[in-house]
Amino acid sequence: MASNSHSLQEPWLLEHGNLKGLSKEMRHGRTAHNMSSSSLRKKSDLTLVSKLRCGLLRNLLANLQEVILGTKLSVLFPAIPLAIVAQCYGFGRPWIFALSLLGLTPLAERVSFLTEQIAYFTGPTVGGLLNATCGNATELIIAIFALSQHKIAVVKYSLLGSILSNLLLVLGTSLFCGGIANLGQEQKYDRKQADVNTMLLLLGLLCHMLPLLFGIAGASASLTAVPTLELSRASSLVMLVAYIAYIFFQLVTHRQLFEAPEESQDGDEVEETPVIGFWSGIAWLVGMTAVIALLSEYVVGTIEDASDSWGLSVSFISIILLPIVGNAAEHAGAIIFAFKNKLDISLGVALGSATQISMFVVPLCVIVSWIIGIKMDLNFNLLETGTLALSIIATAFTLQDGTSHYLKGLSLLLCYIVIGACFFVSKTPLNQGNVVNLGVNAAPGVLTA
User: What NCBIfam families does this protein map onto (predicted)?
Assistant: First the structure.
C-alpha cells in the first residue's frame, strides 16, 4: 500500500522533492476561498498513469488528469475550444459570448486550485497573498480588456455586479439553504471576520459616494469633471493602501480570524499533499491566465451583440449574468458548506470576494486607466451607487448578531431579485469612448468633456 501511494505521488515528487507545504501550519492556513473551491474537486485515479515507464510522459499525463479532470466542472472545458472555433470561423457573436462565459466558469475554479497547489511549496503567507491577488483574476482581466477598448461602462457594471452577487445572491442563497437544511439547530458564525469585511466595504462605499455627491452638488457638470476624476484617483490610492493593510491583517497579525476550519472525520486529521509540482503549477497558472485573457477579450468584444440579439440591456448582462456565470464555482462551494452548517466558510467566500473587488480590483482599474490615459472615475452614478449602498447596509444588518436562519437568506435573495428586475427593465444605452455624460442618469463611467 505504501509503495502504491508513493507511485501515485511520484510525478510531482520527481519535479520538486521537498515537502515544505505539508506542514500542519500550511493546512491550518487555508482560506475560505480554498475550502470553497475544494468542494467541487474530485480525486483522480492515477493507477494507469503511474504504470508508464517514461517519467516525462507520466508527469505530463498526471498533470493533465489532475488539472483538467480534477474538477466536477470539467464538462464545461469543451466550451473553450468551441468558443475559439466560433470566433475563428465567424459564427454568431452571441454564441461566442455564451461559450466564452461557460468556458470561464471552470477556469476560475482551476486558478484557485493552482494557487493552493503552489502554496504547498511557498508556505501559507505567500500562498495567501497569491490567493488574495488571483482570487478574482477573471473579473480583473475582463475589466482590463474592457478598459483597453474604452468600454468603461462595462467595467463599472461588471465590478458592481460582482459585489452585489456576492453580498446578496451568494450570501443570501447560503443563509437560506443552510437555514432550510439545518432547521433543527441554530446556525452560528464568528462575527469578527464579518465585521472586518463590512468595515472595509463601508470605506469603499464612502469612496464611491463622494465623487457622486461632488458631481451632484456642483453647479455645472463640466466644472466638476476634472475635480471628480482627481478625487477618484486619490480615493483609489487610499483604497489600495487600506487593502494592503487588510492583507497584512489577514495573513500576519490576525490570521486566526480568517482561517477556515479543517474538515475531519471521527476526529482523525486528514493528511493533505500536493498533486502537482511547483513549476508545473506555475506553468499551468500562466497558461490558464492566458486562456482567461483570450476568453475575456471575446466576452468584451461580443457583449453588445449579445445584448442586441437577446433583447437584454448591457447593464443587466454585465451586472447579473457575468458575475453569476463567472463565479459559479466559487458560489456553489459557498452554498455547499452552508448545507454542512459551516457558515464561517460561506461568509468568508462571499464577504471576502466582495471586499477584494471593492477595495482592490475597482481602485486598481482606476489606477490602470490613469496610466494608459483613460478617464475612469469612481462615480458609478445615482442608481448604481444607491443599489450598492443599500446592499451593504442590508448585509451589515443581516450579520449583526452572529446567528442565522433561512428568513435572513430569503430577504437578501429578494433584494437581489428586485435589483435584477430594476436593471432588467433599464434600457440605459452603453456609451463608449469619450462620449459626453450630461447627467447622473447616463451610463456610468464616461466623464464630461
Answer: caca2 (TIGR00846), cax (TIGR00378)
Q: Give the C-alpha distances (Å, rounded to integers) separating 214 from 40, 229, 443.
A: 45, 11, 18
Domain that holds residue 416: 153-258+301-425
> What whole-number distance in Å separates Cα of residue 328 and Cα of residue 85?
24
| Helix 2-15, helix 278-310: angle, nearest 10 | 80
CATH number where 421 lies: 1.20.1420.30
3-state secondary structure of 90: coil
Distances (CA, A) of 295 to 114, 120, 162, 369, 432: 19, 29, 18, 21, 21
267 φ, ψ (degrees, to nearest 5): 75, 0
CA dist 113 and 346 (Å) reads: 17
Find out whether 353 and 135 touch, Cβ atoms under 8 Å: yes
The per-residue pLDDT for range 347-406, each reduced to its tens digit, is 888 888 899 999 999 999 999 999 999 989 999 888 899 999 999 999 999 998 888 888
Residues 359, 144: Cα–Cα separation, whole Å: 16
CA 142 to chain centre: 12
* Grid cell listed for 22: 505539508
Contact call for residues 125 and 289 (beta carbons, < 8 A): no
Taking all residues of the chain, what is their mean pLDDT, rounded to a whole number? 78
- CA distances (Å), origin 165, targets 281, 363, 382, 388, 395: 30, 19, 19, 11, 12
CB atoms within 10 A of CB 284: 22
Nearest to 322 by CA among 147, 148, 97: 97
Average pLDDT of 194-215? 91
Write out the three cell numbers for 398. 443581516
User: Does some domain include residue 172?
Assistant: yes
pLDDT band at 245 (very low <50, low <70, confident <90, very high): very high
Residue 389 counted as domain residue = yes
State the DSSP H helix or E strand holding residue 246, giving kind and residue range, or none if neither: helix 221-248
Residue holding cell 474538477?
71
Q: Please name every residue paired with 403 in a beta bridge, in sequence order, or none if there are none.
A: 188
383: in domain: yes
User: Side-chain half-sphere of 39: how many Cα atoms within 13 Å?
Assistant: 24
pLDDT at 410: 93
Instruction: For residue 363, give the 3-state DSSP assignment.
Output: helix
- Rounded to an integer, the average pLDDT of 310-334 is 82
Q: Would residue 142 count as lying in a domain? A: no
| Cβ neighbours around 298 below 10 Å, total | 22
Q: How many separate domains does the chain show?
A: 1
